[in-house]
Amino acid sequence: MKSSLAKSTPVLVFVLLLAAIWEAGTTFFDIPHYIIPKLSDVLLSIWDNGRLLGKHFAVTLGEALLGLGISAVFGTLAAVWIESSGLAKKTIYPLIVASQTIPIIALSPIMVMWFGYEIGSKVAVVILFTFFPIAVNTADGFRAADPDIGELMRTMGAGKRQLFLKWKIPSALPGFFTGLKMAAAISVGGATLGEWLGGESGLGMYTKRSSNLLRGEAVFSGVLLLSLMGIVLFLSVQWAERAILAPRRSLKNKDSQCERGKLL
After folding, report:
1. Most Cβ neighbours (<10 Å): which of 24, 78, 123, 188?
2. How many domains does the chain have?
3. Residue spans of alpha helices (H) in the chain
4. What is the pLDDT of residue 248?
């Protein structure tokens, strides 16, 4: 507990310093509220509009989670396909990489044309943002599997299924979680962009309407909540990663300590 608090102290101090600079700077330079509002006004706006912001927050969070979940499933399946098929490795993998040369913001209106202004278009935009990092990092994780371990398992009579479950998947988990953390952080941006293009609810729509009315404090309150959402999603995936991979890492540490003891 104390070590966690010690690690988070520099971040908290830095955030408080930025908050003080924001509040003092806007006051000292007399910046108009529709350009950069005072932090105190932003926090007051969140307090006054808490119920409304809560509803919009839930909508955006639902879109981000749904899109992220679909990307996690199909991104992992794509990585498995790429790993298990030489043809897919030569065709699908390059296509996935090449797809990132197309600006996602240019494809977003197409998603609206296909799925309309309901939740489907927002989820589709989130998938456009999040599928690539999960699929590519998981595929790279499969390729990073130690060939010596695989060869040892084969000599011990392991079949294809056992090799995949006990060698390939554990080797791919770090890459999968790396991609999932990246996707979790940017899923909020995908949901927000989808709401900007058309929608009736969500923090993206809230900030867009507030911007049209030159309500700077409302815009910044929405942005702060979106940022908080992205941070919480990232930390949630990081917590899951530590919980799942912790036994494996502790086992590796024990093995390395035993090897050092033998050398000594």
Report:
1. 188
2. 1
3. 2-28, 39-48, 50-84, 86-98, 104-115, 119-143, 147-155, 160-163, 169-197, 203-212, 216-263
4. 64
Percentage, residues of the chain above pLDDT 70 = 91
The C-alpha atoms of residue 162 and residue 166 are separated, in whole angstroms, by 6
Structure tokens at 3: 């070590």
Residue among 82, 88, 91 nearest 143 (CA): 82
User: Which of 64, 68, 60, 63 shows the shortest CA–CA distance to 180?
Assistant: 68
Is residue 84 within 8 A of residue 94, CB to CB? The reply is: no
Query: Token pair of 39, please?
Result: 């932090």
- Does residue 15 lie in a domain region? no
Using pLDDT thresholds of 50, 70 and 90, give the confidence band for residue 81: very high
- The CATH number of the domain holding residue 199 is 1.10.3720.10
Tokens of 175: 């890459």
Query: Does a structural domain hold residue 59?
Result: yes
The answer as to whether 220 is a domain residue is yes
Residue 7 lies in a domain: no
End-to-end CA distance of the chain: 34
Domain that holds residue 109: 31-245
pLDDT, tens digit, 9 for 90 and up, residues 5-58: 567 788 888 888 998 998 899 888 888 888 889 999 999 999 999 999 999 999
- pLDDT for 264 equals 43
